[in-house]
Amino acid sequence: MKLATQDKKHFRTIAHNLSPVVTIAQKGLTESVNEEIERALSEHELIKIKIFAADRESRRDLTLQICETAKADLIQSIGNVAVIFRAAENPNPRLSNILRHKAG
Q1: Residue 22 β-bridge partners
Q2: What are the sequence ranges of the domains in the chain?
Q3: CA angle, residues 80, 83, 88, in degrees to nearest 5
Q4: What pLDDT is attached to residue 54?
Q5: Nearest to 8 by CA among 85, 87, 92
Q6: Adjacent-strand bridge partners of 23
Q7: What is the model's pTM?
Q8: Percentage of the chain surpassing pLDDT 70?
Q9: Which architecture characterizes domain 5-103 according to CATH?
Q10: pLDDT(37) > 80
């Protein structure tokens, strides 16, 4: 799904106050990390991921791999933090970062 520039800008605004919900360290993208990303995207739609990798190129490759695996859109990547989005089929208004932001 290709997001409009305005949508990405809006999602970056929402993500600014979010904390990373998944951290990827030395072991990289394991099955349990993929499951946690899947769970977080299903519940929250918009999430931050902290990625500790050797260099910028490794972080970029890992970020793209996460987006491809999770079928999510990359919203922003700054330093060790990536923000990704995937729309939920039936978002929970209490958990979805997108819907909670609209309500607030």
Answers
A1: 49
A2: 5-103
A3: 150
A4: 85
A5: 85
A6: 50
A7: 0.92
A8: 97
A9: 2-Layer Sandwich (3.30)
A10: yes
